UniProtKB/TrEMBL annotation:
Annotated ABC transmembrane type-1 domain residues: 65-265, 336-530
Signal peptide location: none
Complex and partners: The complex is composed of two ATP-binding proteins (ThiQ), two transmembrane proteins (ThiP) and a solute-binding protein (ThiB).
Name the UniProt record assigns to this protein: Thiamine transport system permease protein ThiP
Transmembrane stretches, start-end: 21-47, 67-87, 99-123, 129-153, 199-221, 247-269, 290-319, 331-360, 380-399, 411-435, 482-501, 513-535
Membrane topology: Multi-pass membrane protein
Major localisation: membrane
Domain of life: Bacteria
UniProt similarity note: Belongs to the binding-protein-dependent transport system permease family.
Pfam families, per the entry: BPD_transp_1 (PF00528)
Organism this protein belongs to: Marinomonas rhodophyticola
């Protein structure tokens, strides 16, 4: 009886220590939810619900909704159709420049939108490279330009997500495929596709939401009201009309559409589980053939045509004399300083929030009565993609204005919105490794009573590369954001992307190209510093298959 009492006391004591170490995570997630409720309450306070039925009868609204859905579906489908053979090629082929290409994919996922748009204009524009060297004219403004920009952003993202799916395949299956002499197609049919289809729904939903809520791409390349999305309509309602009622209605409509779409996809998607025995992926060569080499060559050719040229176009002005003249502009360096003042705290806040979500999710994994929560917690963090950043910023501004903080709070609003908008990418980098560590070492931690910071000190060498990647993503996304700063930017709050947009809008394209070089070099420097100093010696060169 005494032994049983001691055992129960030990379990209660261990649970108490676990909850005590969980308190920071609960506070972080709770603060995230509180800010969301505050934004929603502030927007609903200024809304006129009786007028929302009138918006539903406007033909323009349904044209915007149809185009938003159509371009998002096309962008997601094209990106994944190209990414599947590219991911298979990168998995099975080892060639010179493969590691550099994967690192380029990591950066291109979060390259500033306005910089990528400028690179696309240089390549596909009326007087761009394609027109000068091949005589091919591309109608860049409209659906074609939007799809080109989205494919440029989403192919690298889709490839990285699909490569994570390959990490789910046990090495024994590859070894058996090699022993049986499987060809690439046979291995794809019987092994790869079984795991690929577990990753595809999540990748499709993520890319769809990013394209459905696209703002800067549609604003720059849409070419008019005919090619407008809900996000642009929300911006117009806030920026030009300051119609909070219409903006609230459009935002809730967007959230509803994205939620229904995500619910439908996740309902039919298979469960994604990782083998806890996987420590590292072991590669076993498969039977090669002419058709496999041809398919891999075509897949890489698509990447080199759609992704590489805009990067080269962005870096082209670095050799021009105007570039050095642009570096002497005080306005440029003021914009650089503002961008860093926004990006650094936003990235840290986003990383802290991501760690809070990850710690809370993995705490629930080992408890049978909480086993249903980890996916729900992760989806909660990803739901921010459904809510326009402009609406979050407006709701925060109204809430802070009601308590006496007006325009002086604009800076912190921009920082917070950038942090939460980067949260899904932070979670994408953190969650897989956190889940894996929990499954692998949970029993050891419980038997030894290791909790909280002691556990983090043991896990840090195993997760620091992923933490560095998450921090790098948050830095680059915050540095390149133009949505919220376009709404709240003022004379003293002009970031580098907004400064670049102003130059392009005033037809100073050559000077804008030089500013774009500064912005992309700053992104590369910050991403390298994050990988090197947070990720450790292997952080700068680590490439995960």
């Amino acid at each position: 009886m005494a032994k049983r009492h001691d055992a129960i006391t030990g379990v209660i004591s261990l649970s108490f220590r676990s909850m005590k170490g969980l308190l920071p995570a609960l506070l972080g997630v709770g603060f995230f939810l509180l800010m969301g409720v505050v934004c929603l309450a502030a927007l609903l306070r200024y809304s006129e619900l009786h007028s929302w039925f009138g918006y539903l009868q406007q033909p323009y609204l349904w044209r915007v909704v149809r185009f938003s859905l159509w371009q998002a579906l096309l962008s997601s489908g094209i990106s994944l159709l190209i990414a599947i053979p590219v991911a298979s090629c990168l998995m099975h082929r080892r060639f010179y420049g493969r590691a550099a290409l994967l690192q380029l994919f990591s950066v291109s996922m979060v390259v500033p939108t306005i910089v990528a748009i400028l690179g696309l204009v240089v390549v596909y524009g009326r007087s761009g490279w394609l027109s000068q060297f091949l005589g091919i004219q591309v109608s860049l403004y409209g659906l074609t330009g939007i799809l080109l920009a989205h494919v440029f952003f989403n192919i690298p993202l889709a490839v990285r997500l699909l490569l994570q799916g390959y990490d789910l395949i046990p090495a024994g299956q590859w070894r058996q495929a090699t022993q049986l002499g499987f060809s690439r197609w046979t291995a794809f049919r019987w092994i790869e596709w079984h795991y690929m289809k577990k990753v595809l729904p999540g990748a499709f939903v993520l890319i769809f939401m990013l394209c459905f809520s696209s703002f800067a791409v549609v604003l720059s390349l849409g070419g008019g009201p005919k090619f407008s999305t809900l996000e642009v309509a929300i911006y117009q309602a806030l920026r030009f009309d300051f119609d909070l009622n219409k903006a609230s209605f459009l935002a809730l409509l967007q959230v509803m559409i994205c939620s229904l779409f995500a619910l439908f996809v996740y309902r039919i998607a298979p469960v994604n589980r990782q083998d806890v025995s996987l420590l590292a992926l072991t590669r076993y060569p498969l039977k090669d053939s002419y058709w496999a080499r041809f398919a891999d060559s075509m897949a890489l050719l698509c990447v080199f045509v759609l992704v590489i040229p805009p990067f080269l176009a962005i870096l082209g002005p670095i050799f021009s004399p105007l570039f050095f003249e642009t570096l002497q502009s005080p306005a440029l360096w003021r914009a650089v300083l503002v961008s860093l003042q926004i990006a650094l705290p936003a990235a840290l806040v986003s990383l802290v929030l991501g760690l809070c979500f990850a710690v809370l999710a993995r705490f629930c994994m080992g408890r049978p009565y909480l086993a249903f929560l980890p996916n729900k917690i992760e989806h909660l963090g990803n739901m921010i993609l459904m809510v326009p950043g402009l609406v979050i910023a407006t709701g925060l501004f109204l809430a802070l204005r009601d308590i006496g903080w007006g325009l002086q709070s604009s800076y912190w609003i921009v920082v917070w919105v950038n942090a939460v908008m980067a949260l899904p990418f932070v979670l994408r980098a953190l969650m897989p490794v956190m889940y894996q560590q929990e499954r692998r070492f949970r029993n050891v931690y419980l038997s030894l009573g290791i909790q909280s910071w002691s556990r983090w000190r043991l896990e840090w060498p195993l997760v620091r590369v992923n933490v560095a990647q998450a921090l790098g993503y948050a830095l680059l996304l915050s540095l390149g954001d133009m949505g919220v700063i376009a709404l709240f930017g003022s004379q003293g709050l002009v970031s580098l992307p907004l400064y670049l947009f102003q130059l392009i809008g005033s037809y100073r394209l050559e000077e804008g190209s030089c500013v774009a070089v500064v912005l992309i070099l700053l992104c590369l420097m910050l991403f390298y510093c994050s990988s090197r100093f947070v990720g450790g010696k292997m952080g700068g060169v680590h490439v995960k298959n």
